[in-house]
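RECORD TYPE: inverse folding
INPUT: structure tokens
STRUCTURE:
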């Protein structure tokens, strides 16, 4: 062995009790020292010499070997050299170079360690210590100049620098240390370290200083965890709320958070939002992100412990992100307590890392990126679905639509189809958007036509009775078609309510119109499966596409897929009967389409009631689309087969329950079973 790092860390301390276990940046000082040595490329082994079991446990977890330090070497008068020499007598292989590393220095750069070790290995020095360049004038207690003549005060640039020991590390030839018995012998050199690394913790005030500096000094490191739990207010938001004239509360969030959350889910990381408040805004955002949420919590710490026990997750491999004092409990229980820059001072002091972005301004995305950075690239790209699916066919790769991933293992993407149920009235459209948002949908869908192209010649002059009086069918279609002004308002309202919006274009000019509105995807209506010109125009957009398959044969679908490709395609099983009788639902076609095309498959329903849509989810439907209306008795062709607000709310609620109930497929005994198991189970042989 060439290089051994020894970290003396006794349990006793005069200035700060159990100083070596004091937390800085979310980690005990001893763990910080060990991690710095482990990350140094030239250190072969790290040993912690201690007389304290708590310190030993932390040291082992950080990657060190522990050597029990005898009582005679653990008192206040025992030298650090004695601990190093004792460690050398108890390692299996004597090193060429030994490094004394002290926990009292919270900030040790592994690169500085490597640079100092190199000087000893190449023979440039026998000893190298960490030092801070200083031009300070020192005085004795009796008023005499120590390193200067008080009568002659040269400028800083005219003086030779001195170096103050920082106490962080001392690199020594092992043979020289044993010969001399102390850390300074032979040729001594200095490894300069920056002033931000030069604070030694000897007093409670020193500890406060390094805790305050840690968020600014510590280099951002990957966060290697299996679960991420976040507070909501101040983490997903900027901790402010906006209230409109009707008393509805709104918050500001970062759209970039959605992509980060999607990637984390795809990599298999468990996610949870925990909030003290009980607020529909929290629920709506959680549904948008596809993240479970627990609200109205009075004791987050207990709830977190129970959740981790149920999920079987090691708390040491969990990140909790909070911003206020009610987050201190759960933060103290996890391996990665994280906070935002403007958090309460006590929370900042307790955090292992402080994010650079504020809540509502990308803090969640920054966290996600750092968690993903700790996971192997292939794991992030090809991670299996986080829960088992009830299917025997290969799992298709999810498709990104807006901020959501649509596919196996992701929350069902809920689409509320407004279609033409707005009856040409923008106010009705806005109300239907509100219905979709409040029910927890991720998107609303419209239909877009150019009547002069889509209305057949033989139907144009037919007379139609409408709420606006008698008119031709062409006049009626023009009367109910939305244009740029209306869709601009729709886009604005959807953004305010946190919804994606898109439409089914029925002709090429409508595709061009929707592209100008920058929709997140295009829906291909069942009636358009054989419109090859339209399909080619849609394929050329490069957008993800959703293809409904009602009233289509497999051969017709094959031809459409040949044009559209499968890399960004989501398919929808549908039967184009309005309303749909159960005997025509044919839900097993969902599996047929999955097997044949290898793409995510959802369900577009036109039935009355909820049962068929719920059954589709249990068969693997990754997205569900249902028509919605304010009142099924309203005038119009699609209202009768649509869901009213209460029905849509119940559908989304029940689908989320089914998602939870499907579980992960791993057979195990849950905490709730333990009591009846101990009471009822008999074991015989």
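DESIGNED SEQUENCE:
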């Amino acid at each position: 062995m060439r290089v051994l790092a020894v970290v003396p860390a006794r349990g006793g301390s005069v200035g700060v009790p159990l100083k070596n276990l004091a937390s800085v940046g979310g980690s005990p000082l001893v763990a910080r020292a060990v991690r710095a040595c482990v990350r140094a490329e030239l250190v072969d082994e790290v040993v912690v010499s201690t007389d304290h079991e708590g310190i030993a446990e932390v040291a082992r977890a950080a990657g060190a070997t522990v050597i029990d330090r005898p009582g005679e070497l653990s008192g206040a008068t025992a030298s650090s050299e004695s601990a190093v020499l004792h460690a050398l007598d108890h390692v299996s292989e004597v090193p060429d170079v030994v490094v004394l590393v002290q926990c009292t220095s919270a900030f040790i750069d592994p690169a500085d360690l490597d640079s100092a070790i190199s000087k000893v290995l190449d023979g440039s020095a026998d000893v190298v210590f960490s030092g801070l360049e200083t031009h300070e004038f020192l005085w004795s207690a009796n008023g005499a100049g120590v390193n200067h003549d008080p009568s002659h005060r040269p400028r800083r640039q005219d003086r030779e620098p001195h170096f103050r020991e920082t106490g962080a590390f001392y690199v020594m030839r092992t043979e020289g240390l044993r010969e001399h018995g102390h850390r300074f012998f032979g040729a001594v050199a200095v490894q300069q370290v920056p002033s931000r690394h030069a604070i030694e913790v000897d007093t409670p005030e020193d500890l406060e200083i390094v805790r305050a500096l840690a968020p600014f000094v510590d280099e951002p490191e990957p966060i290697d965890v299996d679960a991420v739990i976040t507070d909501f207010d101040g983490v997903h938001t900027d901790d402010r709320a906006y209230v409109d004239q009707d008393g509805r509360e709104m918050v500001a969030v970062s759209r970039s958070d959605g992509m980060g959350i999607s990637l984390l889910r795809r990599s298999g990381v468990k996610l949870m939002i925990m909030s003290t408040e009980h607020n529909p805004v929290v629920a709506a955002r959680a549904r948008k992100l596809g993240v479970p949420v627990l609200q109205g919590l009075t004791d987050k710490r207990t709830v977190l412990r129970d959740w981790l026990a149920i999920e079987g997750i090691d708390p040491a491999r969990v990140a909790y992100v909070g911003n206020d004092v009610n987050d201190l409990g759960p933060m103290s229980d996890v391996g990665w307590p994280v906070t935002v820059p403007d958090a309460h001072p006590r929370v900042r002091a307790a955090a292992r890392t402080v994010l650079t972005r504020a809540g509502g301004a990308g803090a969640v995305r920054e966290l996600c990126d750092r968690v993903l950075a700790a996971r192997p690239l292939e794991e992030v790209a090809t991670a299996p679905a986080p829960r088992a699916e009830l299917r025997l066919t290969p799992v298709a790769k999810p498709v990104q639509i807006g901020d959501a991933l649509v596919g196996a293992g992701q929350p069902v993407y809920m689409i509320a189809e407004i279609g033409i149920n707005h009856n040409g009235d923008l106010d009705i459209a806005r109300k239907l958007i509100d219905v979709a948002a409040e029910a927890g949908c991720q998107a609303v869908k419209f239909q877009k036509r150019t009547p002069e192209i889509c209305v057949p010649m033989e139907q144009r002059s037919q007379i139609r009775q409408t709420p606006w009086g008698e008119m031709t069918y062409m006049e009626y279609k023009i009367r109910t078609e939305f244009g740029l002004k209306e869709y601009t308002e729709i886009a604005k309202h959807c953004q305010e309510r946190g919804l994606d919006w898109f439409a089914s274009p029925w002709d090429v000019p409508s595709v061009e119109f929707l592209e100008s509105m920058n929709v997140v995807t295009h829906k291909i209506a069942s009636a358009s499966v054989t419109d090859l010109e339209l399909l080619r125009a849609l394929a050329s957009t490069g957008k993800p596409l959703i293809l409904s398959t009602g009233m289509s044969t497999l051969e017709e679908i094959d031809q459409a897929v040949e044009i559209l490709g499968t890399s960004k395609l989501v398919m929808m099983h549908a039967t184009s009967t309005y309303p749909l009788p159960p005997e025509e639902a044919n839900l097993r076609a969902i599996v047929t389409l999955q097997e044949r095309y290898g793409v995510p498959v959802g369900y577009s329903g036109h039935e009355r009631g909820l049962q068929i849509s719920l059954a589709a989810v249990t068969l693997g439907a990754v997205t569900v689309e249902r028509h919605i209306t304010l009142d099924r008795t309203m005038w119009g062709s699609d209202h009768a087969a649509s869901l009213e607000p209460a029905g849509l709310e119940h559908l989304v609620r029940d689908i989320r329950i089914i998602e939870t109930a499907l579980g992960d497929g791993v057979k195990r005994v849950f905490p709730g079973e333990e009591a009846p198991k101990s009471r009822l189970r008999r074991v015989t042989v």
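NOTES: The radius of gyration is 33 Å.
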